[in-house]
Design brief:
Cofactor: FMN
Order of helices and strands: HHHEEEHEHEHEHHHHEHEHEHEH
Protein name: Alpha-hydroxy acid oxidase
Radius of gyration: 20 Å
Number of strands: 10
CATH class: Alpha Beta
Structural class: alpha/beta
Pfam families: FMN_dh
Low-confidence stretches: none
Keywords: Flavoprotein, FMN, Oxidoreductase
Family: Belongs to the FMN-dependent alpha-hydroxy acid dehydrogenase family.
Distance between the termini: 39 Å
CATH superfamily: Aldolase class I
Shape: globular
Mean pLDDT: 93
Length: 367
């Protein structure tokens, strides 16, 4: 199967489902509970429409944008995702190279499978570090200093995981990090030899930011102690841009703005945490109204196409982020698959812009 077989995000997902071990696919693809939250996200995005316009000269179009004063070649970036190298050996650095090429932010997860220092170097500085608060916070603030030393200018605090959501598909496979290989996992890997051999040759994916002495992380540890005083400490400790990710309530958004946060990312963590959470796209307009027209507002969760991304921009976001579909593209056809899907997403947005009379992305809210 070649990258040319990818004509949509769903194509990438379909091929990835066949190639990945069941445990890995369901870890990447799964959502909380019975996954009605994920269905709600999709239904809400599908229900939105764009306004077609005719007889506009849209022969020349630009998808250029900017974020925190830095020019980008696309209005969408890469959401932070844990353990990306599960989708294919070297996936983190594939994403970093993509970020460098298009000058877009690459969200680097606390639980990335490549050290944060290596990713920002490969991304040529186009990387943001995503932070989880956990335990008593001692390890969290050590990571803050490490990110600062590595040259990160933007920190993304994820706040929608006080406790890790229950994802039954993942739990049924006994997914743990590091891997615990039992009879079920052995059979799973044996039935997917291409992935298993490639991963074996590249080295078992691990939470790379915690392989150094003095750094520990328990993925299942409670993160429930974080509060507004934690945010204040972080604001004092971080001199660069501070983004808070995982916001769905307009009152929370307004307070975050008042507390000195530089931007908010409207997100439900891809419906992986609270099954009953509202669809983030349905929250976007109220949050935009609360924070005002000029405050930086980002968006992720459930985006599957360039048209989806354009919908989020029209409805109040300044910049959006794609997540798991990029991992599916890598699983389907490696770096060529990632580049192919990126071209598909770009084409989808450019064509949607033409259909709706847009030459560029300036002044597009309410289009």
């Amino acid at each position: 199967m070649t990258a040319g077989a990818i004509h949509s995000a769903e194509d990438a997902r379909r091929i990835a489902r066949r190639r990945l071990p069941w445990m890995v696919f369901d870890y990447i693809d799964g959502a909380a509970g019975t996954e009605t939250g994920a269905a709600r996200n999709r239904a809400a995005l599908d229900a939105l429409t764009l306004r077609p316009r005719v007889l506009q000269d849209v022969s020349q179009r630009s998808m250029a944008s900017s974020v925190f004063g830095q020019a980008t070649e696309r209005p969408f970036g890469i959401a932070p995702m844990g353990m990306c190298n599960l989708s294919g050996p070297g996936a983190d650095l594939m994403l970093a190279r993509l970020a460098a090429r298009y000058k877009i932010p690459h969200g680097v997860s606390t639980v990335a499978s490549t050290p944060l220092e290596q990713i920002i170097e490969t991304a040529q500085g186009h990387a943001w570090f995503q932070l989880y608060f956990s335990g008593d916070g001692a390890g969290t603030f050590k990571l803050v200093e490490r990110a600062k030393s590595a040259g990160y200018q933007t920190l993304v605090l994820t706040v929608d995981v006080p406790e890790v959501g229950r994802r039954p598909r993942e739990l049924r496979h006994g997914f743990k990090m590091p891997f615990k290989i039992g009879p079920r996992q052995f059979v799973d890997f044996a039935l997917h030899p291409r992935w298993s051999i490639g991963s074996l040759l590249a080295g078992k994916p691990q939470m790379a930011n915690f392989l150094m002495d003095g750094y520990e992380f328990d993925r299942t540890e409670s993160r429930a102690k974080a509060d507004w005083s934690t945010l204040a400490r972080l604001r004092d400790a971080w001199p660069g841009n501070l983004v808070v990710k995982g916001v769905l309530d307009s009152e929370d958004a307004l307070r975050l703005k008042q507390e000195g946060v530089d931007a908010i990312q409207v997100s439900s963590h891809g419906a992986r945490q609270l099954e009953s959470a509202p669809a983030p796209i349905a929250c976007l307009a109220a949050i935009r109204e609360a924070v005002g027209p000029d405050y930086p507002l980002f968006f992720d969760s459930g985006l599957r196409s360039g048209e989806d991304a354009l919908k989020a921009l029209v409805h109040g976001a300044d910049f959006v982020f794609f997540g798991r579909i990029l991992q599916f593209a890598i699983a389907a056809a490696g770096e060529a698959g990632l580049e192919r899907l990126w071209d598909v997403l770009s084409d989808e947005m450019s064509i949607a812009m033409a259909q709706t009379g847009m030459r560029d992305l300036s002044g597009l809210r309410g289009a």
